[in-house]
């Protein structure tokens, strides 16, 4: 693995967490005036530099991938439930509904589907925000990348647009890790990833949107739209993140998604030092342990070397059985 690839892989993990932490104080707010964009880590409901549920759920997923050396939905569910029981400061509504029914005894196979039937229009950004660890594990295996990106969504978010968004964003991340430009990765993922037509239209139009058209709510389409708009209309890591977190509303989640994308595009070295130094968060929750930059780097290195020939083979046999 060359040095540039290592920087890109590490950039995804650190970029996602940095984007989450930068967006944290702006969550639920209005868009910042264009002349007064926030460019630094600020305190919000948590101290400056602290990541939130977006990164916590990604860490739970990442630890499952490392322990199982594959995407095991049962193990992912157990780890999400363990996280949920530790009373995280914020949890999405849809995620709460699904994890509550699992806690009451439903299996992961039925919980997400049952909640989706109850709220058929619910298509939140709660699975795309945490999906990047799959891209770090499967950056060199397109089949596993697509199948496991989708599966990690199905554990809580069964809506077809949530599933396809996770596959699309992870496909772009993997392409950029492999050296494609953001624009080439975007065009490639658009031809490669199967998705509902409405989502495809949103993705097609995203780069040409005007800032004032972006709503940046918790709807998965809005998050993907903001992240693509930010990535494809800037040419540095810093500008991509600043443009997106200042949209307000679901700023931390859009920040996490554009952070993973821009981290893959520009690599760890391109992430501002001040942001990297301030990055922090308790993990596991209620353990007293604080995660910082070196922990994200180690995690990225482990995930990137984790997909063994055996795991890839077991994916292929699952695939044939399906
Ligand atoms: Mg959050």
Gyration radius, rounded: 18 Å
If helices are DSSP runs of H or I spanning 4 or more residues, what is the number of helices? 16
Mean pLDDT: 95
Q: What CATH architecture do you see?
A: Orthogonal Bundle
Order of helices and strands: HHHHHHHHHHHHHHEEHH
User: Strand-residue fraction?
Assistant: under 5%
What gap, in angstroms, lies between the N and C termini? 33 Å
Text of the CATH class: Mainly Alpha
Helix content: 55-70%
Structural topology:
Blueprint: H1 3-23, H2 53-68, H3 73-85, H4 93-103, H5 108-118, H6 132-137, H7 142-154, H8 160-177, H9 182-192, H10 197-205, H11 220-232, H12 237-245, H13 251-266, H14 273-278, E1 281-282, E2 290-291, H15 293-304, H16 309-321
Antiparallel strand pairs: 1-2
Helix pairs in contact: 1-12, 1-13, 1-15, 2-3, 3-4, 4-5, 7-8, 8-9, 8-13, 10-11, 11-12, 11-13, 12-13
The structure holds magnesium ion (MG).
Summarize the structure.
The chain is an all-alpha fold and about 325 residues long. It has 16 helices and two strands. The protein has one domain (about 5-30, about 50-320): ADP-ribosylglycohydrolase fold (Orthogonal Bundle), CATH 1.10.4080.10.
